[in-house]
Structures are given as C-alpha cells and as structure tokens.
Design a protein that fits this description.
The chain is α/β, with parallel strands linked by helices and 418 residues long. It has two domains: 271 residues, FAD/NAD(P)-binding domain, CATH 3.50.50; 134 residues, Elongation Factor Tu (Ef-tu), domain 3 (Beta Barrel), CATH 2.40.30. The chain is built from twelve helices and 15 strands.
C-alpha cells in the first residue's frame, strides 16, 4: 500500500539507502540527483551511490566501531548493504568494495523499482512538502547551499582530500605481500616509514595546509601531510602496521571506478602538489614506476551545525518531516551515512503508521551516532566517525556490547516489521 510520496534530495549512499528502504516498505519516492548533468569535482561516475574516496568500509575480522555499525544496519535491513555484499573485493580481513560495481548495482535497483522515480535535476531550494530528506552530502551543490545556510543559520566546513589512485601496471609485486588478487600490502620498516614522513612533511601543498587537531575521530579525516608533522601519527591513524615487523603498511585495494585495472592506496588522502605526490609514491618500494591515475585533491566538505538543528532521528527540530542525513549532518563515513538513512526512514515509517518513534538507545552504535548529532556541544561541532567511547553506558567488553545491541535491534525489527 502506498502511504505517502517522499522527496529525497541526493543520490549518494544515504539518499539511495533512504529511497530503497522506504520503497521496500511501500512508500512512493521522488529521488532528485543532479548527475549526470552536473557533478562535484570529487565525483566521476554518471551512476548513483558513488564512493568519492576510499573503498574500505570496515574490518571483517574483529569488532570495531564500524564493524559494530555494519552488523547493526545489516540487521535492520539496509538495502545498500545487500549490494555491498555483491560488490565486495577479495579482502579477507576487511569489508571493501569495487566502487564501480556498487554504484552500478544500486543504480539498477533504483531504476527498476516501480515506487522510485529519479529526477536528474539540481534542487536549489528546500521543498515545502513533507516528508523531505536532504542527503546532498558534504559536497552539496552551490545552487542549494544558500538555502541550507539560510535555513540552518550558516554551514560549517572542513578541509578534506581524496586518496591517491594508481594503475596496476608497472608495479613490482615482488616487494609486496599478496593478500589476494584484489589486495596487496607494502610493509615499511622504521627507516622507510621515516623517509615517507619527511617527504610528506616537506611537501608543497596546493591549498592552505589543514591544521592538526587532536579531536578523537576527526583526526582520521586529516591528510597524510598533516599527520606526518608528528612522528608516528600517520602510521597510528592511517597506515596501520599489518605485520609485527613493520612500522607502517601501505594497502593497495582494487577499484574499477577510474579504469579497469587500478588500485586505491587506502587512506592515502592528500593535497600535496602533483610533483610531490609523484615523488612520495615513487619513493615507496614496489611503486617506483607507478603511474598515478587520480591525484589526491583538496575539497571543502560542508555540514550543518546538527546539534542546534536535529533530533536523534535526524529530523529538523520544529519542522516535522524534514530530515538531514548523511555527511551533511556531520557524521563521517560511508556506513554512518547509511545508518542515518535507516534511522530517518524508520522514523518516517513509524510516523506514517501513527506510532511514536523513539530514538534507538545509545548502547547501539546507530543510536550513539544519533545522540552525537543531537547533543549540544561546548566546543565547535565537528564531524565524527563511530567510536566505542560514544556508547552509553561505556564498556570495555565490546563483544558483550555488540550482543546487547543486536538482541535489542532484533526486537525492534520484529515489533516494527522492518
């Protein structure tokens, strides 16, 4: 039964998840996406649900905050997660995808769903109809930004950058550890790692250098040249050692978004000038002849001051039926974007059915993220990735915390027929 027609602006991971989730529950959806006629400088594909940087989602071998979130949204019936499973690359330790295939699978699902109509238009105002979901991401178009700034009393922003992508041709695989045909590790000893830091530290930057911050979570958004300013930070937050003998590890992971035979250098985000990017890549063993297919590049990510505007369901306070989800709400990462879409869709479904939709509790990672975006901050509100420290009550037993969360969500799924 079609209960309502819902506007969704933006067909990134959050917008696509919201559209598919709501359609699964019988809602008619109008999905607005400006591609292929216009795109941000970070997007390259004409299709939807496009990853713009790394293709890693979470660990598949241990319980991490992102792994916990992955299990939670999978249990709640995420539609994009189903396509993620189909698009996975062969990475035994992690859940990672080929971004081209993920985009193609989700685009096909949207186009073939009779309850979803996609309009290839740039929206420059906030629709008056409710429900409406705004999921335009941190790279919201210049045409819509003025309306958002007016509605939410200005936007916040931070400097972000893309990861470097290289061709798979011309690499010396004998100097790497082969994990699979899709994944290779390059282990750096202390001397090699220190040399990498020195190049990054001295590199010329295309734009103003991103200032260092110790904010837990936000620090992982920083480019390699900023983290390299302090010895060991780059390995701690991006180039995690994957061997007891290594000081850091460079991870190459297959991704077809840029050509048929390319690797994303995982977490290698940078805004160095191109000659410096060539220099640092060619300094890494096995990559002396590597060809960069896509250089790392600066872009400014926009987000609203969510604690002043949103409740725990990502609904705008004082404007029932208007939602802001995904990275525009200030949560960072692919899985958090999907999670916010599931939360908003669940809220809409409940409201249309005449039910009070209580936020998910903060002992779930989904609920903890909702609590973060809706809680007033003493300092400036900054983007945040999932952290165990966000959970309430806190616990050092992450296995028990996960089981408690999944048991609770199973009851929600059964009760609300999600």
């Amino acid at each position: 039964m079609i209960l309502e027609s819902i506007n969704i602006i933006g067909a990134g991971l959050a917008g696509c998840e919201a559209a598919l989730y709501l359609a699964k529950h019988g809602f008619s959806v109008r999905l607005y996406e400006m591609k292929p006629y216009k795109r941000s400088k970070a997007h390259t594909l004409n299709s939807y649900c496009e990853l713009v940087c790394n293709n890693l989602l979470c660990s598949n071998s241990k319980i991490t905050p992102l792994n916990m979130l992955y299990q939670e949204i999978s249990l709640l019936g995420s539609e994009v997660i189903k396509h993620i499973q189909l698009a996975r690359v062969n990475d035994m330790c992690n859940i990672a995808v080929d971004g081209l295939y993920l985009s193609q699978y989700v685009t096909k699902a949207l186009q073939e769903n009779p309850l979803i109509t996609v309009f290839n238009d740039e929206i420059t105002h906030i629709p008056s109809e409710r429900p409406t979901i705004i999921a335009t991401g941190p790279l919201t178009s210049d045409g819509l930004l003025p309306a958002l700034e007016k509605r939410f009393c200005g936007n916040l922003s931070f400097h972000d950058a893309n990861s470097i992508v290289i061709s798979a041709d011309g690499l010396d695989y004998s100097k790497m550890e082969k994990i699979s045909e899709d994944v290779y590790y390059i282990h750096l000893d202390e001397k090699e790692y220190t040399s990498l830091e020195i190049i990054a530290r001295n590199a010329e930057i295309a734009h103003a250098k991103t200032p260092y911050t110790d904010t837990n979570g936000f620090i992982q958004c920083l480019p390699v040249e900023t983290l390299a300013e302090s010895h060991g930070k780059l390995a701690k937050y991006k180039l995690f050692p994957q061997s007891k003998l290594a000081s850091a590890t460079i991870v190459l992971r297959r991704d077809s978004r840029f050509s048929s035979h390319t690797f994303v250098i995982s977490e290698f985000t940078t805004d160095m000038k191109h000659p410096w990017q060539d220099q640092i890549i060619h300094s890494i063993k096995g990559l002396s002849n590597a060809k960069i297919v896509r250089y790392g590049a600066y872009h400014e990510d926009t987000y609203i001051d969510a604690p002043k505007n949103l409740n725990e369901n990502y609904e705008v306070v004082g404007d029932s039926g208007l939602y802001v989800i995904g990275q525009l709400s200030g949560i960072d990462g692919y899985l958090p974007a999907i999670s916010s879409a599931v939360v908003a869709a669940r809220s809409i479904i409940g409201q249309q059915q005449g039910r009070i939709v209580n936020p998910l509790p903060a002992f779930t990672m989904i609920g903890a993220l909702g609590n973060y975006v809706s809680t007033k901050k003493e300092k400036k509100y900054e983007p945040m990735i999932p952290l165990f420290e966000m959970l309430s009550p806190k616990s050092d037993d992450y296995q028990a915390q996960l089981l408690k969360s999944l048991d609770y969500l199973k009851q929600i799924v059964k009760k609300e027929k999600l």
